[in-house]
Specification:
mainly alpha; three-stranded antiparallel sheet; 8 helices; 3 strands; about 5% strand
Amino acid sequence: MKKAFLVLFFTAAGSILYAQNIATINNNPISCKEFLWVYKKNHVGETSLNQKDLAAYLELYINFKLKVAEAKALGLDTDETYKQEIAGYEEALKAQKKFSVDAAEYAYLMNEYREGVLMFNLCEQKIWGKAQDDENKLRTFYLNNAKNYQDKPFEEVRGQVVGDYQEQLEANWVDSLRSKYKIKINQAELKKMAKN
């Protein structure tokens, strides 16, 4: 009887905890509060939340979180230069005295900065550096997609080719991350968030 009660208790507790998360990546939660804070920060002036827009933004946010998870898996968060950059930003934020160190917004800002720097550093390796440094692959991409450039010479459209190549590299990389990491979206919370 005790076992049945404990199983029921932990199942209910797990459901309540999951219900407060909009999604999980490899069982690492993305809280509704965090997601809503980021959404509102990037959609200033919007007064209503609709489910379609929230779902689309959640997909983008999950892509961001996947890159952060990969950066951490590669140990980029243990790099001393990274740690120093984060410490410098934290000191600057504290010096502004706009936010209480105990406030939720302070925690969200620090987390956003930490994760943004990790994502930037990894994108530099995986996308931007590759597109700039490998002239042969860039030219091959140009030749394979020449119709997109109206047969203009490579030198004339190089900037556009670099941008398009970076988009392809990123799309392929995100697809591989989505295969590597287990993603679970809490549709019920998404609907509830849209109603508020």
